[in-house]
Write a structure and sequence with these properties.
single chain; mainly alpha
């Protein structure tokens, strides 16, 4: 019974997620722009961006610590996938 339920759920998830776009260099450009925007947001809004484990050659990362850099990357990827899916749904990508 559990295997059957998992099989049905897997099929439903496959149907619910249509292919909206194919990867292209445009997608990479959108993701890079979103990550740069996230670095700027992180640099402006993190109260103590230098606290914690330092990044090697931190001047290349805007002086962000390891935790701040990872947080900025996470935000950038969330912004990026939202932007890519939105632009793909509108037919831009």
């Amino acid at each position: 019974m559990i295997g059957f339920t998992i099989s049905i759920m897997t099929s439903l998830f496959a149907v619910a997620d249509p292919v909206t776009f194919h990867w292209s260099p445009k997608c990479a450009v959108v993701m890079i722009i979103c990550n740069l925007l996230a670095y700027a947001i992180a640099r402006a809004n993190i109260e103590k961006p230098n606290e914690g484990f330092p990044m090697p050659n931190s001047q290349f990362y805007g002086g962000l610590s390891h935790g701040s850099f990872v947080a900025a990357n996470c935000l950038g990827h969330v912004l990026g996938i939202g932007s890519i899916l939105g632009l793909a749904a509108r037919g831009v990508l």
